[in-house]
Design a protein that fits this description.
The complex is a heterodimer of chains A (244) and B (245). With 244 residues, chain A is of the alpha/beta class. Chain A contains nine helices and ten strands. Classes of the chains: A alpha/beta (244), B mainly alpha (245).
């Protein structure tokens, strides 16, 4: 069963087309990576899917709910970890988690229990009473992702989730994402090729707002004849796949 | 529940910023003490406490605009508001969530101002409680200005518009520091075309027990507060549904 069905999804800002007629299906419980250089249209796609911006044309249906006609229902079942760290600065790490649990409808006690669970899962206990603004970039990023997961979303948008994380923190987060596989449908944007290769079931390569290629990492390597996935990506993103 | 969770977050953000407490509570109190000290040393009646206290109480509310506008503008400049816009919070949850924690802060600010004034000679009577009620429409007006400014300006612009311009306009065109009749002419007409002088006059009338004079002034404030609030809600909703998240 498909969790997400995009049909001709297009976003224009004046004359500029940020995303051009994107049609794509993502199977439930899988991790899908959107790759592309800066300005390829990845974040705009995520923004449209998470109902942050309306498409100029086209539609996407998320678990049976249209982003055009049922945005509120989509927001109930999805969550996002934005590209930049998104935390409330004067709230502690625990309060940030409880806040998001509350906003997604959890009552006080349930919100506290969920926060405790996320603190354990993301190893946040040593900073749980610290104000978010005093946390290092890595801790803030970890908290930000825990905040996206506390609502137990069925669809999770992770926009550059490991940006600014050190190698260990990145690997820890990979482990969390791997544990979610099969339970949550994840759409991930990343600049790290090894991340897309390691985590995703399928990969879409975007360039100048268009989907240029779709498949598993192995399929994309085979298609371009490249030696590595990074070479395959460069070939696909620059349109030089024939010579790769 | 969603609204309460969001309102609670905003209350914590506001109260945990030491500058908010310093300016919101401390600055009006310092002004009250300073101007009362000046009054004690001059022969003319310039800063009588029964006129000064309601004026300072209204002036102090201008900081509420600064607090709310800064909070919203900062949320907008970070990705935090993007996260919230992607959540099931409705437009009314957002607007009430930002506005509700500010109302008790405004009342508390007024209460601290009047309690300080008691020590400076303001009579302790029920009129002070009435004055606190009269301060609610001006508080809503200033909250609306803050919502509007926070929705359309950056956090740096908010500092200039709400921190400098609004506080100065509230100070000079409200009759807090001096009787507007002393200047008269166009200055007085402009002052009374705006809501700030009416807010101060309504609060002064409440303290003086001149009940009949309260509502004619308060209607001006209520009118402005309604219009500003509607514009603020429209501006915030446009931001919420727009591409500039």
């Amino acid at each position: 069963m498909n969790a997400i069905e995009m049909t001709g999804l297009t976003k224009k800002y004046g004359e500029r087309t940020a995303v051009k007629s994107l049609s794509l299906s993502i199977e439930q419980g899988t991790c899908f990576a959107l790759l592309g250089v800066n300005g390829a249209g990845k974040t705009t796609t995520i923004k449209m899917l998470s109902c942050l911006t309306k498409p100029t044309s086209g539609n996407a249906v998320i678990l049976g709910k249209s982003i055009l006609t049922e945005p509120q229902a989509v927001k109930e079942i999805a969550n996002i970890s934005p590209q930049e760290t998104a935390v409330a600065p004067n709230l502690t790490a625990r309060e940030n988690l409880e806040l998001i649990a509350g906003i997604y409808g959890s009552e006080g006690r349930t919100a506290r229990e969920k926060a405790t669970r996320m603190i354990e899962e993301f190893d946040l206990s040593e900073v749980e009473r610290q104000k978010a603004k005093t946390l290092s970039g890595g801790w803030q990023r970890r908290l930000s992702i825990a905040m996206a997961l506390i609502s137990e979303p069925q669809v999770l948008f992770l926009d550059e989730p490991t940006l600014g994380l050190d190698v260990l923190a990145r690997r820890e987060l990979w482990s969390v994402i791997e544990h979610l596989r099969g339970k949550v449908t994840i759409i991930l944007t990343t600049h790290y090729m090894e991340e897309a290769e390691a985590l995703s079931d399928r990969i879409g390569v975007m360039a100048r707002g268009e989907l240029k290629a779709l498949g598993t990492a192995a399929e994309l390597i085979a298609r371009t004849g490249a030696k590595t996935f990074e070479d395959a990506f460069v070939a696909l993103a620059t349109g030089s796949e024939a010579s790769a | 529940m969603k609204l309460l969770a969001f309102a609670s977050r905003n209350r914590k953000e506001l109260l945990r910023d030491p500058w908010n407490l310093a300016f919101g509570i401390g600055f009006p109190v310092v002004l009250l003490l300073l101007l009362s000290a000046i009054q004690a040393n001059i022969p003319v009646s310039l800063f009588n406490i029964d006129k000064l206290a309601p004026g300072i109480a209204v002036f102090g509310l201008s900081f509420i605009s600064l607090f709310s506008a800064t909070l919203i503008a900062k949320d907008r400049t970070t990705s935090f508001l993007m996260r919230l816009f992607a959540s099931p919070l409705s437009a009314s949850d957002f607007i009430l969530g930002y506005a509700l924690p500010l109302l008790p802060m405004a009342v508390l600010q007024g209460a601290v101002c009047f309690v300080t004034a008691f020590f400076l000679g303001l009579p302790v009577n029920a009129n002070v409680l009435l004055a606190l009620v009269v301060l609610i429409p001006p508080a809503i007006l200033y909250i609306g200005i803050g919502l509007l400014a926070g929705s359309v300006l950056t956090d740096k612009q908010v500092g200039g518009i709400c921190g400098a311009l609004l506080t100065n306009v509230s100070a000079w065109l409200s009759g807090t520091w001096f009787d507007l009749n002393l200047v008269g002419g166009a200055f007085k007409r402009i002052a009374y075309a705006l809501p700030f002088a009416h807010a101060v006059d309504a609060a002064k009338a409440a303290i003086a027990g001149d009940y009949a004079s309260i509502l004619p002034h308060l209607w001006w404030v209520i009118g402005y507060a309604t219009v500003i609030m509607v514009i603020a809600v429209v501006a915030f909703k446009r931001k919420m549904n727009g591409d500039n998240v």
